[in-house]
Every structure is written in C-alpha cells, then in structure tokens.
Design a protein that fits this description.
Strand order of the largest sheet: 1-4-3-2-5-6
Distance between the termini: 45 Å
Catalytic activity: (R)-pantoate + beta-alanine + ATP = (R)-pantothenate + AMP + diphosphate + H(+)
EC number: 6.3.2.1
Number of strands: 9
Family: Belongs to the pantothenate synthetase family.
CATH architecture of the largest domain: 3-Layer(aba) Sandwich
Shape: globular
Protein name: Pantothenate synthetase
CATH superfamily of the largest domain: HUPs
Number of domains: 2
CATH topology of the largest domain: Rossmann fold
Radius of gyration: 19 Å
Structural class: alpha/beta
Subunit structure: Homodimer.
Largest sheet: 6 strands, parallel
Length: about 280
C-alpha cells in the first residue's frame, strides 16, 4: 500500500493508473477507522482495480465550539486497518496541503441542508462540499463510496455530483452496526459505559417506527412522537431531533405515501458525543 501526503504524489499515482485504463474506487474518510469505513473499502476493492482512501479531518465542516481539535486521530492504527481492507493508496494530507490558500470562491450548498444536521450546523455541508470537490478532482474516481449512516450527507453529495457533472458513480453502503444495533461511529468511544448501553436504544426506537409504518400508521407526527418517547424513556440522552422526510429530496411529508422512499432520522446528544442514526424506508409495498 502506498501512503502519500502530497497532492503531487497522489496526482502522479492516479495518472499512471488512469493511463493503464484502471478503474478507481474512492473512500473519503476523516480517519479513526472502524468497521463501517472498512466495509466501504472492501466494497471498493471488489468493484475497482485501484482503491484510494483519504484520511483528512476537514476544518471547514466544523463550526465554532465543535470538536475539530478533539476529533479522534490515530494514523498508525488507521494505516494498518486500511491496508488490511485492501486499500492500494492512502492519502493523508495536512490542512496546509488541502488549503494552501484561502478559498477564492464561496462554495455554498442550498438544497437538502435546511433540515436535520444541516439545520443545526450552518455551513457544515459547505465545508463538506469544498473538500469533496477538491478530493474528487485529485482522485478522479470512477466510483466513490459513502455510508448511509450519514444519509443527509449522501443526499447532498448526489446533488453535488449531479450539478457539477462529475463522472462519478456514488455507491451507497448500508449502515454498519454493532451486535446490539448501535451504528458504528468514531464518536462512540466517547460514550460512558452506561451511555454505551443506552445508545443501543436509538436503533430500537427507529425499529419501532419502522414497525408502526409496516402496520399501517401514516401520520409522521405520531411516528416521530413514538420514537421520541422511546428514546426519552430508555436513555438519558438529550434529543436533538427526530424527523421524517422524503428521501433523497429531504422534503417534508405529513403522511407516508405508498410511493418512493422516506427517511426517519434522529440525533441524540450524550455528555461527550452526539450520535446520529436513521432508517430509510422503501415505501413501494
């Protein structure tokens, strides 16, 4: 596995592989890898000749008071895990390498960002868009892999790729979970022992919503209240949001329809970790 830290090194590697007609699968991450990231890498390995993974904690997507400085980092561990998952090239740039100068243009996402985490974190997806546009231009992948745990991010990325005509297939990978249902996340290490036990109830709350829809409940307000009640009764976490939208448009819906998809999404703040999770329901039944 090649580990590169500069844009020039990466460009050279990409050029040589493109010249040979090889397909490139790309897995962008912020590091502190877990099984969810490795699942993306393994999917990329199965579908491409060359697998590129990036590890970059992007300052532009962190707001004031958020956890940029304390975001977990472990380059040595990540390098070993990436190699074990079949990554061919690991790109680990510095902030100075990715942002050598202040941006000369204003990158602003205006669709699909006024709900869920986007509503609570103004400017977050602008930062995501800025770094992904840079990375897509550097890696020039045929396919890029993203986990549906961050379903709003996936919806935003689809918009970026479509609007800017990137010739990239976005491959969505289902959320990877612990045995008790908790979505795997780098932030889970911040949970206390009791919080870790409580956190498994987030998925159980989503499952209750899924069951209610399957049994014929159509009111999104009633389903949201069902989820909130379960979380409040089962955990000490503070509910940030429980919301239902059409997916991937993220437009409001008052009642479930039998056509299309919907997302049930939650965010819950524990003492030192804010956890998100969701289920996407295909309503074509």
């Amino acid at each position: 596995m090649n580990v590169v830290t500069s844009r020039r090194e990466l460009a050279s590697l990409v050029f040589e592989n493109k010249k040979q007609g090889k397909s490139i699968g790309f897995v962008p991450t912020m590091g502190y890898l877990h099984e969810g990231h490795l699942t993306l890498a393994k999917a990329a390995r199965e579908q491409n000749d060359l697998v590129v993974m990036s590890i970059f904690v992007n300052p532009l997507q962190f707001g004031p008071g958020e956890d940029f400085e304390s975001y977990p980092r472990d380059t040595e561990r990540d390098t070993a895990l990436a190699e074990s998952a079949g990554v061919d090239c690991l790109f680990i740039p510095s902030v100075e390498e990715m942002y050598p100068n202040p941006l000369s243009l204003d990158i602003k996402v205006i669709e699909r960002v006024d709900v869920l985490c986007g509503k609570k974190r103004p400017g977050h997806f602008d930062g995501v868009a800025a770094v992904l546009i840079k990375l897509f231009n550097l890696v020039m992948p045929n396919r890029a892999y993203f986990g549906l745990k961050d379903a709003q991010q996936v919806a935003v990325i689809h918009g970026i790729v479509d609007d800017l005509f990137f010739p990239i297939e976005i491959v969505e990978i289902p959320t990877v979970r612990e045995e008790d249902g908790l979505a795997k996340s780098s932030r889970n290490v911040r949970l206390s022992e009791k919080e870790r036990k409580d956190a498994s109830e987030l998925y159980q709350a989503l499952k209750k919503a899924q069951e209610a829809v399957a049994e014929g409940e159509k009111s999104t307000a009633k389903i949201e209240e069902l989820v909130k009640s379960h979380i409040s009764m089962s955990t000490n976490g503070k509910i940030d949001y429980v919301e239902i939208y059409a997916y991937p448009s993220l437009k409001p819906i008052d009642f479930f329809d039998i056509r299309g998809k919907a997302i049930i999404a939650i965010a819950v703040q524990f003492e030192k970790a804010r956890l998100i999770d969701n289920l996407i329901l295909n309503m074509d039944f």
